[in-house]
């Protein structure tokens, strides 16, 4: 299975995020999961790639030319694909992935989450999407989505497209049930 992780190119102030990211890559290696991600060597992205590579896992990075120096492209990946822009990046990450996992991140992560979620809502794909809610990072966002359902602006069935848990095992089971 190839899992795309959307997460921060920066580092979190919460040390739990890096700890969980490292443990997650131990699980990826154990399960034989290939990582598809944004191609950076820094921040949470770099932590994920470095940990899985150190264990002999496969890591594919997709990075726009403009971010090659800003995000400091990782030069030790199994494969690094350089694209012209963000839309091409997201499309290629989508094409190369069986499931999507969201870790803590900023505006770019939210953009990626909502675009892939919208694609699913519109019927462009049926791949599973999940948030690993590390240390309650996404509680407010999840509450907002529930509020949007109550306000009638998000359909309950569309809200259900976004699975979430603070436990990787729950997400892995969801992915396995969804990707058959």
The domain count comes to 1
Report the order of strands and helices: EHEHEEHEHEHHEH
What is the rounded Rg?
15 Å
Going across the biggest sheet, name each strand in turn: 4-3-2-1-5-6-7
Total DSSP helices: 7
The termini sit apart by 11 Å
Mean pLDDT: 96
Features:
180 residues, 7 strands, alpha/beta
Give a description of the structure.
- This protein is an alpha/beta fold and 180 residues long.
- It has a single domain, classed as Rossmann fold.
- The chain has seven helices and seven strands, in the order βαβαββαβαβααβα.
- The chain has a seven-stranded parallel beta sheet, with helices on both faces.
- The chain is globular.
- The N and C termini lie close together (11 Å).
- 37% of the residues are buried.
Q: What layout of secondary structure does this protein have?
A:
Elements: E1 2-6, H1 15-31, E2 34-37, H2 43-54, E3 59-64, E4 79-83, H3 86-95, E5 99-102, H4 107-121, E6 129-132, H5 139-150, H6 156-159, E7 162-165, H7 168-178
Parallel strand pairs: 1-2, 1-5, 2-3, 3-4, 5-6, 6-7
Helix pairs in contact: 1-2
């Amino acid at each position: 299975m190839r899992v795309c992780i959307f997460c921060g190119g920066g580092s979190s102030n919460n040390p739990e995020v890096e700890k969980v990211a490292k443990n997650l890559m131990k699980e990826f290696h154990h399960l034989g999961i290939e990582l598809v991600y944004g191609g950076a060597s820094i921040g949470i992205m770099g932590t994920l790639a470095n940990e899985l590579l150190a264990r002999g896992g496969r890591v594919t990075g997709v990075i726009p030319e403009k971010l090659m120096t800003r995000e400091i492209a990782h030069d030790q990946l199994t494969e690094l694909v350089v694209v012209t822009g963000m839309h091409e990046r997201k499309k290629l990450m989508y094409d190369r992935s069986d499931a999507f996992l969201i870790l803590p991140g900023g505006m770019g992560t939210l953009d990626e989450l909502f675009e892939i979620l919208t694609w699913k809502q519109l019927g462009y794909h049926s791949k599973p999407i999940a948030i690993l809610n590390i240390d309650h990072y996404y509680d407010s966002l999840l509450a907002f989505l529930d509020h949007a359902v109550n306000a009638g602006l998000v359909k309950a069935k569309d809200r259900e497209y976004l699975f979430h848990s603070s436990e990787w095992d729950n997400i892995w089971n969801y992915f396995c049930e969804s990707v058959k």
